[in-house]
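Lab notes, practical 5.
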Amino acid sequence: MGKYVQAQRRGKSPIFKSHVRTRKGAVKLRTIDYAERRGYVRGVIKEILHDPGRGAPVAKIQFLNAYRYKRDTELMVATEGMYTGQFIYCGKKATLTCGNVLPLKQVPEGTIVCNVEARVGDRGAFARGSGCFAVVISHDDDKGTTRLRLPSGGKKTVSSEVRAQIGVVAGGGRTDKPLLKAGRAYHKYAVKRNSWPKIRGVAKNPVEHPFGGGNHQHIGRPSTVSKEAPAGRKVGLIGARRTGRLRGVKKLGQDKD
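Output from the prediction step:
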């Protein structure tokens, strides 16, 4: 047996942990309460911040606490068109305006939403990256569900009670500009986690990787590997159902609907 491969060290070693010291905090919707379920709550955007390691800007929004004499500050995903001093409304009776938070059952079909909950009250799960959005395809009133098209192109059915922000996440087009040089990639990943540069398995020695060694850089064995393989061997296409290029026209779910 050679060295532990990098995939094994990732689960164990602290050097691969996320770099969170300079982050601004968890970016979530408000905790759901009586006011949001029945009416709406008004907040004001205090500032729009850059969160290190996140492509999208973050809005710091202040709400009045309904139960005590204090203000609550929430960090939410900034949508395109947000500005400081803008009022944000959260709740069932909020208007359909960019940045507002509404339950999906109040949102008409074809609306562009972001920061959508997966389950009621989880405070945001889908379409949170810069420039991302989901589209409300259809509502099923009998089942109380809503069908969404996610940024990946996949379809998802969620409860109509889940909340979402209206609009597109700000910071879109970030990936259109090439990084061009290694220094930019270095700084990009330095604030995220230790995941760059990535060394190919075939470029390593046999002790460091199952694909390493040999006089030419070649794998020398099938790249597919069983799900039940031991940890040090589990590299490549793990438990692959199929391999190779996708040929022909892919049938999308939107063609069936």
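Observations recorded by the TA: The longest helix spans residues 182-190. The two ends are 53 Å apart (CA to CA).
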